[in-house]
Design brief:
Blueprint: E1 2-9, E2 45-48, E3 51-52, E4 58-59, E5 68-72, E6 108-115, E7 136-140, E8 155-159, H1 193-226, H2 245-251, H3 270-280, E9 291-297, E10 300-305, H4 313-318, H5 327-347, E11 351-353, E12 362-364, E13 370-372, E14 379-381, H6 401-406, H7 411-427, E15 432-434, E16 440-442
Helix pairs in contact: 5-7
Length: about 450
């Protein structure tokens, strides 16, 4: 009878090492008892890829795929009593270890068995051995070093060994405990630096790429929400006069107060109102602020004018940080606004009623020349016809008395507002001003 160890592996590049320390206890004086504390000087028989390392380790596989190796005890062992045919019991104790190039993969295997032959040339590297369960009880226990083996076996099966046991006296006894201090050290698997780098870098790179893509998506969604605009089909014909909300947001540094001329409202339907705004954009006069276009976003309507470096006139009349205007400059501003108003009422192809003439709507260029601006409340009608405005809009203190009664804005109501504006510039007082007692003083 030959006793051998076999270990097979399924996965490529998996290194498996076996530390084997065996003791068999036999009858008849213990002649069949032996202990291996390393395999360096033993006369074992090998086949396949099995070999003994310089450290005395029995290595049964290597880095090859579907590799197998067998190690045979050099002399036969007898397992049956020749006189009465009794099969005696025997026991083995051994220590083994696995070293895998892929720690997360399985596939290593080890088998200790008895065989009547040493020829396993036809066996596969991943083949298992088994036999019918009839007569002999097989108990297998396992424990990590240095813990004692448990009393309850890990595997218990009844196996018929009569077909493979020779009719000679066999061993009968219990293997003595192993001295673990005599075991050789288990070698370390060679680290695959490239594989470890890939294992670390690839997940990090994938995670980083996913974070970048998610960030781009979030940025695009927030960008679309932040700069979302309202655009309807009827506005396509006004394309050249429409500004993007994004451009205006950037130009005004986020719509900071110092970058804005003013905030107001509008009265008619959006479509008609924008049509008039676009028409007013065709006005050309040296004393009118050029209306460049508009922008719509949700409930907001933004009007875009030429930039006036000196801002609005009221800042010079009432602001403490502005220089006082001399009479010549004031007179030039008044004449300029009058000239622009005449152009709106008489000289353009349609009559334009401004409806909100006041100092804060007069802007000053770099030469402090006055230009009438803010046409957000302006209305147009053809020459020779009557205006149909019925809503009272404008600023308190500039409203003509008849406008309050009839609600109809005309060129005459514009002239009344201009007269209040003239007095405002001349005396430097607001049309309606609060005094210390809390009452309002009307100019």
């Amino acid at each position: 009878m030959k006793k051998l160890c076999n270990l097979s592996t399924v996965f490529l590049r998996t290194l498996v090492c076996l530390l084997f320390h065996l003791k068999l206890a036999a009858s008849s004086g213990g002649n069949d008892s032996f202990t291996f504390n390393g395999f360096g000087r033993l006369n074992l028989t090998f086949d396949g890829v099995a070999n003994v390392t310089s450290d005395g380790l029995l290595m049964l596989t290597n880095m090859s795929t579907q590799a197998k190796g067998h190690a045979f005890y050099p002399t036969p062992l007898r397992f049956r009593n020749l006189t009465n045919g009794t099969i005696f019991s025997f026991s083995t104790t051994f220590v083994f270890g696995f070293i895998s190039a892929y720690t997360n993969h399985s596939g290593n295997g080890m088998a200790f068995f008895v065989s009547p032959t040493e020829d396993f040339s036809a066996a596969l590297g991943s083949q298992f051995w088994a036999s019918s369960t009839k007569a002999t009880t097989l108990n297998v226990t396992m424990a990590p070093i240095p813990m004692a083996k448990p009393h309850k076996p890990l595997l218990s099966a009844t196996i018929d060994l009569s077909s493979v046991l020779l009719s000679d006296p066999m061993m009968n006894g219990v293997a003595e405990p192993l001295d673990y201090s005599l075991l050789p050290s288990l070698p370390r698997a060679k680290s695959n630096g490239k594989s470890k780098v890939l294992d670390i870098v690839l997940p990090l790179a994938s995670t980083g790429l996913a974070v970048i893509i998610a960030g781009i998506i979030v940025f695009m969604v927030r960008w679309r929400i932040k700069y979302a605009e309202v655009l309807e089909d009827w506005e396509l014909e006004y394309g050249p006069h429409r500004f993007s909300y994004r451009d205006l947001f950037i130009a005004t540094k986020g719509f900071k107060d110092k970058e804005l001329l003013g905030i107001g409202g509008f009265g008619k339907g959006m479509r008609e109102f924008i049509a008039e705004i676009v028409s007013i954009g065709r006005l050309r006069h040296r004393n009118l602020v050029q209306l460049l276009g508009y922008c719509r976003r949700k409930g907001e309507l933004l009007l875009v004018y030429d930039y006036m470096p000196n801002g609005s006139l009221d800042k010079f009349l009432y602001g403490q940080d502005k220089p006082t205007l001399d009479w010549a400059t004031r007179f030039r501003i008044i004449k300029g606004v009058a000239s622009g108003l005449l152009y709106l009422h008489e000289d353009w192809e349609q009559v334009v009623i401004h409806r909100d003439i006041k100092a804060s709507n007069v802007l000053l260029d770099h030469e402090l020349k006055g230009r009438l601006g803010d046409f957000g409340l302006a209305r147009l009608y053809d020459h020779g016809t009557d205006p149909h405005t019925t809503h009272i809009v404008g600023t308190m203190g500039y409203l003509a008395p008849e406008l309050v009664r009839t609600g109809k804005a005309t060129t005459i109501t514009d002239v009344f507002a201009f007269g209040i504006f003239l007095l405002e510039v001349a005396c430097g007082r607001r049309p309606v001003d609060s005094i210390a007692s809390g009452e309002e003083l009307t100019l």
